[in-house]
Design brief:
By secondary structure, the chain is an alpha/beta fold. It has helices at about 15-30, 110-125, 160-175, 210-215, 235-245, 260, 265-280, 315-325; strands at about 1-10, 35, 40, 55-60, 65, 75-90, 90-100, 100-105, 105, 130-135, 150-155, 180, 190-195, 195-200, 220-225, 250-255, 285, 290-300, 300-305, 310-315, 330. The strands form five sheets. The chain has a nine-stranded mixed beta sheet with strand order 6-7-5-2-10-1-11-18-21, sandwiched between helices. Strands 12-17-16-15-13-14 form a six-stranded mixed beta sheet. A two-stranded antiparallel sheet has the order 3-9. Helix 3 (about 160-175) runs parallel beside helix 8 (about 315-325).
Length: about 350
Amino acid sequence: MKTLGVIGTAKNTGKTTTLSFLLNGLISRGLRLSTTSIGYDGEEFDNITKLPKPRLYLEKDCIIATSENCLLNTKAEFEIIEETPFSTALGRIKLVRITKPGLIVLAGPNTKNGLNEIIKIIEKKTKCDLLLVDGSLNRLSPMFILDKLIITTGASRNPDIGTLVKEMSLIEKIFSYHFSSYQFTQNNISIISSDKSIVLRGNTLVDEDDFQQLEKSLDDNVEKIFIPGLISNEFLTKNLDRIYKIIGKPFELVFHSPIQLLLTEELKNIEVFLNYIEQHRIKISYRFKPCLSAITINPFYPKQQNYVYVPSYLDKEILLKEMSKALNTSVFNIFETNSNKIFDLI
């Protein structure tokens, strides 16, 4: 079974709409589908703007993993396949098959282990071809285990097209670095040299104590440094000169996944960090690397007017044109006629 995640960079960037489009298109192509989410999604109205949000409509025979309380107020009908050992604030997660189509709220596992086990259960109990996972930038940490990702962005993230394009270019760059084939034996900071390997006590690099422990173990034979846990791009950038001077040559920084970089700090700090990396010919690679398959855009954004939010829109043609021109990744507005090409990338 293949796995695909859909990540929204902010509320109202078209994540649920993209998911619905994918579900309908893939079902019409004869694929057997399952879906879940990282945490909770599917509210009828946005909690802040009070504007209506699209909900997920699931067809007959679609398999879903969601919390039991989400199944109480749905007009969809279903049969329970498996009651999993995982729970959310909305109850135990159940694996069900839809027997009558309807709107469903998803509330799935919010940890990497939980998502991994749900995938195994779906593979064992069903014959699904593809699992679609709903996520967002503020709750995407488990999604590094998926095969492919689609990112949705748009005016709700920022109504300035130039800023949106620059941000997506940076995200695309983060996903452009290669997979590391080196087999690290532990999930701690590891230093790989031409003559030895050192495993440190911790796995994070966020403060001076972490850094000093790393610094003491460096010499000019270092070839790779693996940092699996939390990092501070701002802190690391300020101290890369210290690392570089000790090693005295370009080396390789191995991170757990691209998700690790996206979760750290403001993207502007990541940009400074990546610029330093490029200037000093330091290589970046990942232990886990989901493929960034496509980007979808949404020109809609909620605009505050007289103390209430009203729907507003960017020029959809300019947004699509500028985003497509700047990126190597395929960009789609799923309401446009060529959007079906996205299925060739899945």
